[in-house]
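Notes continue from the previous slide.

Worked example: a multi-chain complex. Inputs as given:
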Amino acid sequence: MIVAYSTAQTDSTAATDSLLIRELEQQMQPAVPQDAAPIRTAPTTNPDLSAIGDFRSSYSDAGPRNLETYFNALEVQLSSVVDPYAEAKFLFSFGKDSLNGEYSAGLEVATLTSLSLPSSIQVMLGRFKTHFTKVNQLHPHAFSFVDFPILIRNYFGEEGLFMEGISASVLVPNPWDVYQEFVVEVGRSGSTPSLDYGTGNRLLTTAQLSTFFDLSENSTLGVGLSGLSGVNALDRTTIMAGCDLTYKWKPVQYNTYHSFTWQTEAMLCRTDTSAGSTLQSYGAYSLFEYQIEKRTFIGARFDYSGLPMVEKSDERSISLLLRFQPTEFQILALEFQHANRNFGPGYNQLVFRAIFGIGTHAAHAY
Amino acid sequence: MKRIIVLFLIFMTASFHSPAQLKIVTTIPDLKSIAEFIGGNRVEAFSIATGYQNPHFVDPKPSYILKLSRADVFITVGLDLEIGWVPALLNSARNPKIQKGGEGYVDASVNIPLLQVPSSVNRGEGDIHIYGNPHYWLDPLNGKIIAKTITQTLSRLDPEHQTQFQERLKQFNETVDTKVKQWEGMLSRFKNTKVIAYHNEWPYFEQRFGLKIVDFLEPKPGIPPTPSQLSKIITIMKREQISIIINSMYFKAESADLVARNTGGKVVTLATSVGGVPEIQNYFDLFDHNVRLLLSALQQ
């Protein structure tokens, strides 16, 4: 009887334990449920791999050597989800040094981006293109013109402003129910004409608010405000503010045949040079691009830019673009640019660029 | 006053006891239509692409990110049809439920018997889909498989109403079976009729309704028609006495018209999706419309 009672008690305890374990197991279930629908994709965990080549030929009436033909850069990108919570991207660039003609490899982007944080927050860490101005977030192959606007080159260098740090963004709820994203980034930049790595503990901080409106089924308007504060080469503060406006038109039914984009950005830069002394400069550009038929685009861009560390210096240019895209994997572009500078000789140049990609390259943001 | 308080309490109780509808975002309107049929008043669905838009090329507008960030279910055609725009949207949606592998991610191609699965892939052949031709919703019997996949997901996410979903699936399947017999009957006289198409997006429709697509205006998938390809098509049409060129809503008709002028053929612009024209309100209307148009052209 005692044995029977003991066994019953053991059974009862075991059953209670088993229930408790089951309850605990249920509570410890991961955020992403296991009971998900099947997916039809290739059974591989290999990352998406792509390579993009950038070949150029150019004629310029400035300098002793007028004709150039060279392979400008190769970008190799690896990207994949890491686990249910994040995705990773690595972008390596093999570029030609314009001074010695040698190729060198560099890490352009290396990021880990969250996919499942609550309250529509997304966090990215690593090395990335800074959310300051709209055009700075693009890689050269994704920009419609052969070169970045002059303000990018004069303030951040040929490739734009990169940062090593953390980026956090959130979708901002608003009464109009429009897409609004706020991004804050903290980290260190490389050495650029306006900002520097710095010797102390001061970090580069940026913020950007982007708002997007669907004007109609065929047209959209994007508006952005951005600002940054960082340290310059004189170990003093540089503050910048920027705004952008992008209008796009693309008829939904014939979206592969015609489109129009008008994009304008302006930027103000305030550079501390010594105690009580500041330099103020600004830059702006406005571009339009029209798709005249399925594979052919024309465009024009007007640029103005000061120099961040040199007072009363500016540069203006007008660029005309003809672009032909046999497929989305190949872009052939011809750009004429006429530029004037008040700090040196102007120039006229004609550049041919061929961009060609292989492999699986993630789509670019709108 | 008492009555107002009672009404208020009833309203409050009702709203507390009526769980919210499942928010569904689909890539194309056909999936939206099927999801609405199965989900009934338990779902609120939105399609990113319109019925007259080329689903290969959709701009990943930020406003879609907003929709996806709030979605409970995301239904995609899959097979890389939307590879140019869906990954960019999902990665920015910040919604773990609808990421690949999430409880609300639905790949509608699962269990579909695929056609034209390539044995090797080379981009020199144009836009080849490595898993097979992705335009499978254009066979109404595949609509039944899509509906079953959607039913399974809705039942999992809203188990209280799974009986309702199952009943609606049964209704959907019965309607498809009845309609398919009707559509097949309408086109039966024209079985094995040879036709030309602009883009390779009709193999499932072709198989179901017994047409025979001989060639395409595009020399390779995704490559616009070239003079040499059009010349080849004109020769084929004259030689084989083909009189129908099937165009889609989002391809300009210039090339098809040119071929038609040179061969005495007729261009039939079929809808590839629900909403292609205003009269196509749901998945059944899509086939009603296409079969009627095709029949009218074939009878001439």
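Summary box: Chain B touches chain A through 49 residues (CB under 8 Å). The longest strand of chain B covers residues 22-26.
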